[in-house]
Every structure is written in C-alpha cells, then in structure tokens.
Design goal:
Elements lengths: L2 H10 L4 E6 L3 H9 L6 E7 L3 H10 L12 H7 L3 E3 L2 H6 L5 E4 L4 H13 L3 E4 L2 H18 L3 E3 L4 H14 L4 E8 L13 H5 L3 H6 L4 H8 L2 H14 L18 H4 L14 E6 L16 E6 L3 H9 L10 E6 L8 H11 L15 E7 L8 E3 L6 E7 H6 L16 E5 L14 E2 L5 H12 L10
Parallel strand pairs: 1-2, 1-4, 2-3, 4-5, 5-6, 7-8
Antiparallel strand pairs: 7-9, 9-10, 11-13, 12-14, 14-15
Length: 464
C-alpha cells in the first residue's frame, strides 16, 4: 500500500501521525506550508527560540491564526491545533508525539535533541545534516539501539541522492558515482558573508527583500554545505570520497556520464564508487547550459553488451562508450518534500537515508579549513562565516591529521563555532583538535569522540 493510501487510512481513523517540530525557520516553514495538504499528518507542537518568529512564519505560509492558539500540547491534540513554545524538552517528552523533525540548523543542539528523542522512544527526521556529517553513524546506532528510526530529510539533497543510489543498486546497477550540482569556482572557498551575494548572483537589496541569511547562503557557496551533504551520502551509502576534497568538475547534464567515469577511462574519478559534485560553471566562469546546479544525480554502469544495447534502444543518455548512464533530478524542493520522510518513518519504519551503523561505516568527514591565516586567540565562527570552510576528506585521512607537535585529528566543521584558536594556522590548512580550545562538556563533543573510537575506519572495502 502506498504511503498516501496509508496516510488516508490514518486520517479516516482520526489517528494522524503526530509530529513535533524543533525549529520553524525557512526549512521548517516550508514543511509547515505543506502539512495542511497532507492527509493523516498533524504538527501538534513547535518548539522555537522565538515563538513569535515561528508564528510569523506560519502566517507567511498561510496558516490561520486560530490554528496555533492551543495553550498546551494536550489541547493541540484534542482540538487538532498546534502548540507553539520554547520548551523542546516538553515537545520531545509528550506521549502524543510520534516523530520529531529536528530543523534548527544548529549541529550541537541537534545532537542533544536527537539523543533525547531516542531515549524517549521517538523517531527523528534530522534536517540538520551538519550534525549527521560529524557523528551520523553513531546517531544512527543510538537510534537502532533504542528501537526507533533515524532519518535524513527527503527534499534535502542527501536523502534524494541516497534514494537514487538505492534505486540503482536495487535494479542491479553498480554505482559509479553519485552527487549533486553546485555553482563553483575555486576562489569561492574564501567567500565571506560580505562577498556572498556578488558570487551568488543576487544584489544585497534582493537578499534583504527575501530575508535571506548571508551566512547560511555562504555555507553553500564556499563549499561547506556540498561537503557536508556528500559526507552524509558517503556514510549512508558506503561510497568513497575524493582523497583531497571535492573536485567540482564542470559539466552539463549530458556530460555527467562522461565526466563521472574513472580517470583511466577519461573521467575525473580516482576510482569507481565515489561521491562528487558537478559545477554549473566552466573553469573561466562561463555558465554551462542545462546545468545540474539545483539537482542530484547517479551514474551507473551497464556491465554487459545486452544492458548497453538496452541503453541505446531506449535512447538513454550515456557517455560515448555507451557504458555509463546518468539518472538525475534537476530540482529539489527542500522543506516542501519533508512529509515523505515523516510518512516513511512513521508508517514503514524506513529511513529516507541514514548513516550505516556497523563498525567501518564511517567513511567521510568534513574538516574545518582556514579561509585565511588564523591567529591564536581568534574565535572561529563556523560554517559559512569569515574564518573556516568545510573540506570533505576520507574519515581515515581526517583521523590522521596532525598539528605541529600535537596528537591531532581533524576538527569537524560542525564543532568549529565559538571556539578559540590556541595556535596560528595558515590559509588552506585543515584544523585539528589541538589547534583550538573546545568545550568538552557537550553531548555533541562526547558523541563525536566516542564515534572516533567505535567507527575508526582502518580497513574499509570499496563499495559498488
């Protein structure tokens, strides 16, 4: 039975999937815009640091004021309304809440929210992929141990890529490469919130009119977000990552099957079975026609003459050899699609993408990398800011990074916010734990350090 049919059954029985949403910013508001149109699903509670801001976002997406007048979650359940408040713990603990949607965008807080939900028997759809990038395998294991489901969010590109990879493997195709698109030139790695709009293609006035957050958008532009999302995909699918970071080969959609081949066959990959990001700009900055900038893709291999003949007979877009074929979605609708994850988790007990839980499943990491020369005493401002950007590396490489005279280990980008440098680091150099003074008391820090011991990637076999 389809998810939509099951949702209609829940609606007919007056037993909707009851959801608690933590964080009602842009992504959360997009999900909320769709909820009234989804049968058998009710957001009974929203926790946000700014309840008034959450109400403004609800009004912006078309919710009537009376829909959020519930004084408690109990009242919201009884009256088919939504309670809005600041207390995320009360939301997670309420027995009516089946699924928690973590949508804060704050990785340290997201880890705390997820662990609390697991402990109370609640499944989680984690929109905050920044948290998944630095401790996703152990989050997924903790969920499994608690008997609940932990999932990436459909609509965001990592879950969509995981879906394409699952399609390919379930159909019997070896996955050669998978990833997303991006507007990329190498100097974007040094972009700051002050320079982002010029690179992005918007004026400051357009950005202000849209209420766009320059730090958040800069995290996309400077390569941090593509690295974070590819780390989540690699850890969920077992695909490998480039040995020295994403290479962003420029390609039109028609060229993806040619470009995403192994180098030995004229492509850019170190080997088959990797994540990569395709740029929508040529190396000289010229836009590429029919680009994949906002989309996702998977390249598969036709291993026999018969399969390759089928590609040809059905006019599939392949490389010139006819061996490699790319399936793609050119667009993603972000928060508008999250309802599919909520339904899948609640009704099928299936994640729409989640990190592997076995030892050796940690394949990728995103390491904070200096945007400029950094001095001792400076405070890092994290993803999308002025000080660091995120570089995708194999987990084993990240663990092996060393500072001068230190024990080292790469500093994950998700924990590189509001921490103080204790020694200088040159522009372009990856930071290590020894380069900063970090708060060791957070659950996020403890979970990450525990994962380094439990999931140390010593001998990882390649994945098809």
């Amino acid at each position: 039975m389809s998810l939509h049919q099951q949702l209609k059954q829940r609606a007919a029985a007056a037993k909707p999937i009851r959801v608690g949403l933590i964080g009602a910013g842009k992504f959360g508001a997009m999900y909320l815009a769709q909820v009234p149109r989804i049968p058998g699903m009710q957001v009974v509670a929203i926790a946000d640091l700014s309840p008034d801001g959450a109400r403004r976002n609800l009004a912006r997406v078309g919710w009537p004021d009376e829909a959020t007048r519930a004084r408690s979650i109990d009242e919201a359940v009884a009256q088919n309304r939504t309670h809005i408040g600041e207390d995320w713990r009360a939301l997670v603990a309420h027995p009516a809440v089946e699924v928690v949607v973590e949508c804060t965008g704050h990785p340290v807080a997201a880890v705390e929210h997820c662990l609390a939900a697991f402990a109370l028997g609640k499944s989680v759809v984690n929109v905050t992929v920044e948290a998944d990038a630095f401790c996703g395998p152990l989050l997924a294991r903790r969920a499994a141990e608690a008997g609940v489901v932990y999932s990436l969010a459909f609509g965001d590109q990592p879950a969509l890529i995981c879906d394409l990879v699952d399609w390919a493997r379930t159909c019997g195709f070896p996955v050669v490469a998978a990833g997303r698109g991006h507007k990329w030139l190498p100097h974007f790695a040094q972009s700051t919130p002050e320079t982002v709009w010029g690179h992005y293609g918007l004026t400051p006035e357009q950005a202000a009119r849209g209420g766009l957050n320059p730090k958040m958008f800069n995290s996309f532009l400077d390569g941090s977000k593509p690295s974070i999302e590819c780390a989540a995909v690699a850890n969920a699918t077992g695909l490998a990552v480039p040995s020295d970071g994403l290479t962003y080969p420029p390609a039109s959609i028609a060229d993806i099957p040619r470009v995403t081949r192994p180098r030995s066959e004229g492509g850019v990959l170190e080997r088959k079975g990797m994540v990569e990001v395709v740029s929508s700009l040529e190396a000289d900055g010229r836009p590429i026609a029919y680009d994949i900038r906002m989309g996702v893709w998977v390249t598969v291999e036709g291993e026999t003459d018969y399969i390759r003949h089928c590609f040809e007979e059905y006019n599939a877009q392949t490389d010139d050899s006819g061996r490699y074929f790319t399936l793609y979605k050119r667009w993603h609708l972000i928060g508008l699609e999250v309802g599919l994850s909520v339904a899948s988790v609640a009704l099928r007990r299936e994640a729409t993408g989640a990190a592997a839980t076995e030892a050796g499943g940690w394949r990728a990491d995103v390491v904070a990398t200096a945007k400029r020369d950094l001095k001792a005493g400076e405070v890092l401002d994290g993803e999308g800011g002025y000080t660091v950007w995120g570089k995708l590396l194999p987990a084993a490489t990240s663990l092996g990074l060393r500072s001068a005279g230190g024990a080292g280990g790469g500093l994950p980008l998700g924990l590189a916010h509001d921490v103080t440098m204790v020694r200088p680091v040159r522009q372009g150099q990856c930071l290590t734990w020894d380069d900063v003074a970090i708060d060791t008391g957070t659950e996020a820090y403890r979970l990450r350090r525990a994962m380094e011991g439990l999931f140390a990637p010593e001998r990882i076999a390649p994945s098809r």
